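Hi team, as promised in this morning's meeting, here are the two structures we talked about. I've kept the exact order from the run log so nobody has to guess. The first one is mostly here for context; it's the second one we should focus on when we meet again. Sequence first, then the predicted structure tokens.
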Amino acid sequence: MTGARSTSITVDVPQWRIGDDLAAAAAAARSVAADGLQIDFGGAHRGPRLDQGYRLDEARQLASSLPVTALAVNHANDLGLVTDDGRPNPAATALLRTALRCAVTIGIPVLHVPGFRRSAPSSPARVAGTAAVLREAVDDAAVHGITVAYESALDGHASIALAETVGRGALGLVLDVGNLVDAGNAPADFATAVGGRLHACAHVKASVRAPSVEPVALLPQSPAIRSVLVENDYRAVPARLAADVTAARNRLSQNPEGAQCARSH
């Protein structure tokens, strides 16, 4: 057991940035001594949908031997959580309900909802519509003890305003170093602004806007961050996965207070 593990620092890896094959992604996670695997629901160009019987069975079996700590619904970015005029998109809300059922079946504690591209909360109407979608998702998930974690390019103050519109204290706000830097926002400022709303698991990947900046160095040293998802493109550079896990673990070990990720509470 490494020193990092002894202080209950956790680092997860993303199946969707490794490959569509769940077993291969799990093998990659084990090969770098990651603490858990986060998986994607799939759909469109993102691989098979998780609600297909064989895929769901495979994920459930995988979760019995390796912690599956979050289910990301990245297909929401393709559909749009809201319509162009800000109304909740029925196709997206149906997608989130289906993903939640899969999370319940597998035993995944976090439903990750992204707000990018067609789901970007880019106007007051779209913010209001997004809040309505998230409110329903949080309420549905709470029945099963599942946390909804939301990520977008909004800065900390705008993220808090959206969360207050949702009106549900259980909603977590995800800090993603690369996406925040690309949007011109400082990760440390985001963490300070969202305060207790900060989701316990932060995402770390390189910025497209500033690729020379080491993303792990921008991860705030906050006791609220209990886990990290490394999220670079490991399809293109598989060897980077081990280096990223090590770098994230080293950074987390510098936090003033280490704690286990929410999945262990």
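And here is the second protein, the one for discussion:
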Amino acid sequence: MTFNVVETWYLNDEAAQRATETMQIIDDAIGDNAHHHAGWAGHATFLQDTADPGVVTWIYPWRSESDHRDLLKTEEALVQPLIAKYCTRPRTIRYATALPVEVEHDHH
């Protein structure tokens, strides 16, 4: 099963109006730290909520929860100024595993 991180950012109104630019700034600021971590397993997908454009969720694969928690220790000092500038509250982080659901059916 694939292990994934589901990370949600809560942007202030100004940052939400330019969400792509804001997410690029944040990714540029913390990406190198993540990419050099042994647990890194692939790039993120960035999803902006259509009902609340201030909510942006990142989904990305990681080797394990313990490896990601290790990354968070090194990332905290990088993230705090970004949250203070662009967000209304701290990000939330959840962990999920992909289910092996068969999606290619032959219904004919």
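Starting points for discussion:
Strands lie at 3-11, 45-48, 55-61, 87-97.
The mean pLDDT is 94.
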